[in-house]
Amino acid sequence: MKLRITVENKTYEVDVEVLDEGGVAAAPAPAAASAAAPAAAAAPPPRPAAAPAAPAPSASGGGNEIPSPIAGNVLDVKVKAGDTVGENDVLLVLEAMKMETNVSSPRAGTIASVSVSAGDSVQSGQVLVTFA
């Protein structure tokens, strides 16, 4: 397909090729219908199936460290070292883009340490709380 493009008052005529998801040039669409049946297009060879992605590490898997789910600021810390918490208890509150996000306990247990304070900036994945 040919296109005419004008950039800064200069006109360029360019050829454009439409590619499929695999980067292979797609067959051009017929310009007009013909009485003869179109020839069967050769199907691209099948691509090997991608290996499934490894599951992301989860704080709910019984791990001792609770990472930040988002980058943001710590608004409120609800626990301190030595506190006993239940599953789904709110440990702290983060704020990002004017939205508050509760970080909850994935399991019951005792808090060994809290690595952040109210007002701190945190990055996604940064350890916030550690269980004993």
From TrEMBL:
Keyword match Transferase: yes
Top-rank taxon, per record: Bacteria
Pfam family, one: Biotin_lipoyl
Known EC number: 2.1.3.1
Region of interest (Disordered), residue spans: 35-67
Entry keywords, A to Z: Biotin, Transferase
Gene Ontology molecular functions: methylmalonyl-CoA carboxytransferase activity
Biased segments, Low complexity type: 50-59
Domain Lipoyl-binding: 53-132
Gene3D superfamilies referenced in this protein's UniProt entry, alphabetically: 2.40.50.100
Name of the protein in question: Methylmalonyl-CoA carboxyltransferase 1.3S subunit
